[in-house]
Description:
single chain, 292 residues, alpha/beta, Rossmann fold, 2 domains, 9 strands, 36% helix
Amino acid sequence: MNDLVSMKQLSESEILALLDRAQNFETYGARELPKKYTVSNLFFEPSTRTKTSFEVAERKLGLDVVPFESGLSSTIKGETLYDTVKTLESIGVDALVIRHPDVGYYNQLIGKTNISIINGGDGSGQHPTQSLLDLYTIREEFGSFEGLNIVIAGDIAHSRVARSNADALTRLGANVTFLCPTEWCGEFNAVHEWDENLLNSDVIMLLRVQHERHNEKSIFTKESYHNQYGLTLERAKRMKENAIILHPAPFNRGVEIDENLIECSKSRIFKQMENGVYVRMAVLELILNGRN
Length: 292
């Protein structure tokens, strides 16, 4: 495999193999790859967790990391993404991690360049490494996915995390329910009340309201959204004893999740962030070794 741009590329066995490899990295630590590779991280949207954890993963694998700042590059002079990628390929970069606001930006690159592409998020399309780290965190907790009841709640229509996880979790045997306002369903069938979905859930995954992707001003205030669709303290008390809370972050405290729940005993939010390093090491190793 030379590129990873969507969870749909991966079979169930390939997903599980990547999770196994990530677990190996967590248990035994990193080893540098046998061959020296050069990578760069092209982020055209803001990022804390994804960009930083890729950089940590790259350094743990002994990769040479070429800094790239979109605001200081020739893209502000009108250079296309394709020409930027071809430039980096020409000077010896082997792989790129790219985050871009355009859904499917990678279609102009795959098969037209010899550089490997790892999708760090394309608009509201896909975010494969986030999905993999979510899967890793869930499996770490429950051992498998078969029969788990998982609620993904929030701004579903604009979420690449929801799209990536919906496909993978369903194929791995989980029961996935989407919960959101009627205006934010997108192509998904969703429920609009917590009710029994709260009581039966093994995993509640909360999503940020992505105001930057909305064409119109939200009809909700922070308080009204939190009361109707957020994970409040009262709702958290009704969760199953062994249920866990996930969030890809950044989180809006007091909107999709009560501030007091972010580091509560059921929360695995910061463990997700830690797991992102192991998963991204596994992905980088797979992609770069595939270039041999």
